[in-house]
Backbone:
């Protein structure tokens, strides 16, 4: 079960993910990112402070947007991951392919730098 | 100790599988980091089976068994009657290819192989058995 909400702050769309993302709920994350891109936001932040679990289905959603966002010059930065969630990204080496920061401030700074 | 959980092949049941594995491994004193990785691997294996071998039919059942023959030795068996979905037959796709093809699947097998020590398949009593093993320090 996952709850996803979106907050707009300083020109960035922040997708707040609360709960668990698995094969049954990854579609909700996919829809949230697709809406965000479709509505023309130029910076996307993913707030993972409430993310308790993610399986490959959720990781696959992030992976599937890497190229599209790179082509459109839209930075996507994840932040606030708990250790066990960060470990899942690390097992697959995704920490090197995605932009991941400790907190919202660092994520905003990186998104601003990348969007220049 | 032996633990068993029977579940229908609906993706909404994955949460129950994770809770069962967590609860069982907690009883065995498996440390949190290892436990989280193992829970993930079992979730991946069961969701693969539900999707590819059972087309998410909730009337089809999976049996999940956990055995701990000695301290730190963990054996997981997923037993079903479906088509055999052997992850050893699949090569993990390169991450670059997944990104380029915008594929959302293909990462689960890579995760399971990275987390578990061994994954094997065999038939027992006319049923499919997928056995995963993992040694942990307790």
Residues:
């Amino acid at each position: 079960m996952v709850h996803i909400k979106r907050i707009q702050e300083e020109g960035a769309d922040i997708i707040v993910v609360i709960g668990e993302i698995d094969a049954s709920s990854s579609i909700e994350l996919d829809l949230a990112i697709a809406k965000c891109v479709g509505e023309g936001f130029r910076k996307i932040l993913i707030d993972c402070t409430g993310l308790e679990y993610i399986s490959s289905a959720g990781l696959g959603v992030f992976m599937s947007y890497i190229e599209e966002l790179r082509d459109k010059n839209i930075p996507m930065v994840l932040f606030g991951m708990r250790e066990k969630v960060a470990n899942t990204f690390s097992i697959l080496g995704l920490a090197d392919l995605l932009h991941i920061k400790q907190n919202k401030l660092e994520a905003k700074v990186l998104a601003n730098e990348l969007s220049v | 100790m032996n633990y068993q959980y029977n579940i229908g092949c609906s993706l909404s049941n994955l949460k129950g599988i994770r809770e069962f594995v967590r609860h069982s491994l907690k009883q065995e004193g498996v440390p949190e980091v290892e436990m989280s990785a193992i829970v993930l691997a079992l979730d991946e294996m069961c969701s693969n089976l539900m999707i590819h071998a059972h087309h998410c039919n909730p009337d089809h059942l999976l049996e999940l068994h956990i055995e701990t023959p000695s301290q730190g030795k963990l054996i997981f068996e997923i037993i079903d009657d479906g088509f055999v979905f052997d992850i050893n037959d699949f090569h993990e796709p390169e991450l670059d290819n997944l990104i380029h093809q915008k594929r959302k699947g293909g990462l689960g097998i890579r995760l399971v192989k990275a987390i578990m020590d061994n994954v094997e398949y065999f038939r027992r009593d006319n049923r499919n058995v997928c056995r995963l093993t993992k040694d942990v320090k307790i």
In short: Strands of chain A lie at 2-9, 12-21, 44-54, 76-79, 99-101. The first helix of chain A runs from residue 26 to 38. Chain A touches chain B through 29 residues (CB under 8 Å).
